[in-house]
Every structure is written in C-alpha cells, then in structure tokens.
Design a protein that fits this description.
Layout: H1 23-26, E1 41-45, H2 57-65, E2 70-77, E3 83-85, H3 97-100, H4 114-117, H5 138-145, E4 151-156, H6 165-179, E5 192-195, H7 199-208, H8 223-226, E6 232-236, H9 242-250, E7 254-258, H10 263-272, E8 276-279, H11 282-291, E9 308-314, E10 318-319, E11 323-332, E12 342-349, E13 352-360, E14 366-372, E15 377-383, E16 395-399, E17 401-402, E18 406-411, E19 415-417, E20 422-430, E21 438-446, E22 453-460, E23 464-469, E24 475-481, E25 490-499
Parallel strand pairs: 1-2, 1-8, 2-4, 4-5, 6-7, 7-8, 10-17, 19-25
Antiparallel strand pairs: 2-3, 9-11, 11-14, 12-13, 12-15, 15-16, 18-20, 20-23, 21-22, 21-24, 24-25
C-alpha cells in the first residue's frame, strides 16, 4: 500500500450498494471500526513488510499472526482485467521480471496477463525462503482474511487508468461481496476500507457506495469539505499534532498516520491522540500499544484445543547446494486447522538447534517454505503458543541429500616421440555446465600393464587446468577428481603412444 494510503471503514448495516448523493448526512459516525476512546488501530502497511515480501500472502499471514487489526494492500488490474495486489505500476522492483520477460521488464502491469504475472517470483528479492511467493490476486487475499480477525484497507492505485468508479471500483466491490461476508445485509461492516490517492475518485465512490467508508490520503487542510463524504483523514507522521487531531475530531473525522516504524515516533503519535497507526512493524506497534492499554480489541478468538499435533513433509531426495521444499501442517486435537500460528523451522548443528525461519501458517493451517540443503540436513519444526493453540511437541525429520553429479574430461596429444613433453588438458563441470574447482589426482601406468602410480596432485580452478607430462613409453593416464562439499567426484582416462625417434 502506498505511503499514507490507510483509512478506516464506515461500519454499518450493508443492505446493498445503493447509490446516494448524501453520504455524509446518512453516515452513522458511531459505526466507525475504531472504538471511541483510548483504543488505537494497528494497520500492517503492505502486510508485515519488514519480515516478509510486501503485498504477498506471506506478508498478510504474518500480519494476522502479529495481532494487526487491518492489513493495507494495493490493487491494480492486469491486461485481462484481473485484480492483483501490487504497489508499483511496474514489476521490476519486487519480481524477477527482468529474467522471465527481459524485453518487457519496464512494461506496466496493465500490459501483462494474469497467467504471465503468475510466472514471476515475488519473494526471492526479500529472502530465499520466500522464493515460492507469487503476486496474489485480490480474491486470494480476501479469502485469506475472511476467517481471521483482521480487516483490509483496499487502496485502488491510479483508478483513472482502470475505468474509475464504474470500472475497477465496481469490480473490487463485486470481489468483496463474493469472497467475504463483510457486506451482507443486516451485518455491520467493520473490516473494509476503500481508498485512493485521488480525491475525485474517493468522493465519487463515497456517493456511489454510501455504506462503505472512504478516506482522504495525505492532505489535511480541507477538513470541512472532507467531512461531507469521508470518515477519516490520513496524514504523514510529521504533520501529526494534538491541534490537528482535535480539529479533525471536531468535524467528525478520524485520524490515521503513516508509516511509523520507530518506537519513539509511535509513542509521539499516540500522545497526539491519533485513531490508528500504519506501520511496517505491526508486532512492535502491538507491544507499544499494549504497554499503554491502547490495543484495539479484535473479534473473539476461537476456543483453545487441549493440544495440537504437527507433521512435516519434504519432497524427494535433496540435492546439495539447492533449496529443498518443506511443508509443515499444524492441527488441533480434533483436526481443526491451526491458522496463523507461528512455526519455527530449526536445523540441528553441533551446538544444538538453530532457528532457520520463523513463519506463520495460513488459513488452512499449512506452511510452505524451503531451506538450503547441507551434507547433514536434520530439521525440527515446532509451533509457538498463540491465543488459539498451545505449543506443539517438536517434530524432527532427517532429509536425505546427495551431491551434484559431475563429469571430468582428460584429453590431449595421443602420440609423442622420444623424450618430448606435452600438456594434458582438463575440463570439469557438473550436469548443468557449472565449472567445478577442486582437487584431483593424476595416476599413470604402462599401457602393457602394471601398478598405478601417482604422478601428481593438482588443484583445478574454474573447471580448467593443464598438466605437463613426459612419458618415455606407451602410457595410460587416469585423472580422479575428488568429491567436494556439494559435488560428486568423477574419473577419466587418456592414453599416449610413445614413438621412437627416427635416426
């Protein structure tokens, strides 16, 4: 979600999307999702975007697990009119589009189809553990949020490019109605925000969908005008003051501020009296607010089961120097899904168990990730205690590994005269054509038979080398390349026929 792109929704009974030209007059100020008084909303900016790649399902899941009240996301549209969650208008910063589509790296998202977007990796830039993350559709994010306690701030980026209120605005509302129960008739909407960095669009949207809360973004000067159609203003943290908050409240507007990551700044805006704070660190904000008894209450948590079980799955035999997929499943005592539960993936080392990753499960109680393989890969997975589930017993799994196959080649002259010398050439690569640097031993014996003797031990650098030899008879050579930390060894031979000099 863009800087300052946060707002809180008007929560009231949603009897349908009835057009209205008197939004502010019909709105019920008490229907705001922010409770009146000291409670402050915790808004995860683009999800938990410090730890996980922004605007991905991983960031959404970890924001839920970090006690965020809302997740801020950005919505754009593809060439085939599918809504995807993406902040930038182009794909270069947060995906591998330069490698997948090198000639289209600078194209806007509106020139890609959803099928093409799904081919892109949207997580590796953050960490190798997120290599399987993709750009999610709005549908996937809504389905992830629906069974949680967390709402969504849906910012429509550059709506004028996608048909405005009648285009992308209406399309987004159809998705909300289809994939969530937030706007059912007779039910209060306490979990939805629609917003944009475009006052004209926001005002038109407010007039069209009078039961959905909208907000201004950035500006804070036209409080009287904003109060006619908006429920909230969003201002940069540098502009927040007690005076501004007091004047906005007098006009019936709530105040949010963005993007606040330092503890000192969080404490300052809390003292100013804001109603919500947008942050890349929702867990840090949660602790700051809890210390001051300012945490915004969420929905009632499910009943805790007596215990939970956990299983780990890995796929096949892992190749060294690669990442092996790992799937963890957390379940309650009666098979219920342990949603948004923190899970630690640990590696056994000589000094004990070392935590490799700390991730949250999704709405299905599953966690999919990958870990880098080592010669001895012994993993342990354990979940942490949450408001829903107790800590599980650790589950240990050893994953078989193997080295990359390699091929070494020894070649050169096959005939020499007298005491002439020559150089044997060496090429050493793996099956993917990657050069190997390691040690090898050159052995020799007469072609007629006998014992192998070591000629020399060589160090091959960059997969290439030259070895000087001077045989005085027909000789058979053998090169034995040793295995290394991630590659397997190999052997190759070469024969040189010795020719007598003519007199």
């Amino acid at each position: 979600m863009g800087i300052g792109a946060l707002a809180f929704a008007l929560a009231g009974a949603m009897a349908g999307f009835v057009p209205s030209t008197a939004h502010a007059a019909e709105a019920d100020p008490s229907a705001s999702p922010l409770p009146a008084g000291r409670r402050i909303g915790n808004v995860a900016h683009r999800g938990a975007s410090i730890q996980a790649p922004e605007n991905t399902l991983a960031a959404v899941r970890e924001a839920i697990a970090k006690q965020a009240n809302f997740v801020g996301i950005d919505v754009r549209r593809t060439r085939d009119n599918r809504l995807v969650v993406l902040h930038d208008g182009r794909l270069r910063r947060t995906t591998n589009v330069e490698r997948v589509f090198p000639r289209r790296a600078n194209w806007p998202i509106s020139r890609f189809t959803l099928a093409q977007v799904r081919r892109l990796d949207a997580g590796s830039w953050k960490s190798p553990g997120y290599a399987r993350e993709r750009i999610p559709t709005l549908r996937r994010v809504l389905k992830e949020l629906r069974p949680s306690r967390t709402g969504v701030f849906l910012e429509i980026k550059q709506p004028h490019l996608y048909g405005g209120v009648d285009g992308i605005g209406a399309q987004a509302m159809r998705a909300v109605r289809k994939y969530t129960g937030w706007l059912k008739p007779g039910r209060a909407n306490r979990r939805l925000v629609v917003q944009a960095f475009n006052d004209g669009f926001a005002r038109s949207f407010a007039n069209r969908y009078d039961r959905v809360g909208v907000s201004t973004l950035g500006a804070a000067r036209k409080l009287r005008a904003y109060s006619r159609w908006a429920e909230q203003i969003n201002v940069n943290q540098r502009k927040v003051s007690r005076s501004l908050v007091k004047r906005a409240h007098a006009w019936g507007l709530r105040v949010t501020t963005y993007v606040v990551n330092k503890r000192s700044a969080m404490r300052r805006v809390v003292r100013a009296g804001v109603d919500a704070i947008s942050t890349d660190r929702p867990e840090r904000l949660y602790h700051v607010l809890r210390k001051r008894s300012r945490v915004m209450p969420g929905r009632r948590a499910p009943t805790k089961p007596a215990s939970a079980s956990l299983s780990v799955q890995s796929r096949g035999r892992a190749m060294l120097r690669t990442r092996v997929p790992v799937v963890a499943r957390v379940r309650g005592q009666e098979g219920s899904r342990a949603r948004w539960t923190w899970v630690r993936i640990q590696l056994r080392t000589p000094n004990g168990w070392r935590t490799l990753q700390r991730r949250a499960t999704g709405r299905l109680g599953d966690l999919s990730t990958s870990v880098r393989t080592r010669q001895r890969l012994r993993l342990r997975v354990v979940s942490e205690r949450t408001d829903w589930f107790r800590r599980t017993s650790p589950v240990v799994r050893e994953i078989d590994t193997r080295r990359w196959p390699t091929q070494v080649r020894l070649f050169g002259d096959r005939r020499l005269r007298g005491n002439d010398a020559t150089r044997l050439r060496v090429r050493w690569e793996d099956r993917k054509g990657r050069s190997i640097s390691g040690r090898a031993k050159l052995l020799a014996r007469p072609r007629s038979g006998g014992q192998w003797r070591t000629v020399r031990t060589v160090r091959i650098n960059g997969g290439k080398d030259r070895i000087r030899v001077s045989p005085n008879r027909d000789t058979r050579y053998r090169l034995r390349a040793r295995r290394g930390s991630w590659w397997a060894g190999d052997t190759d031979g070469h024969v040189i026929n010795h020719l007598r000099r003519r007199r």
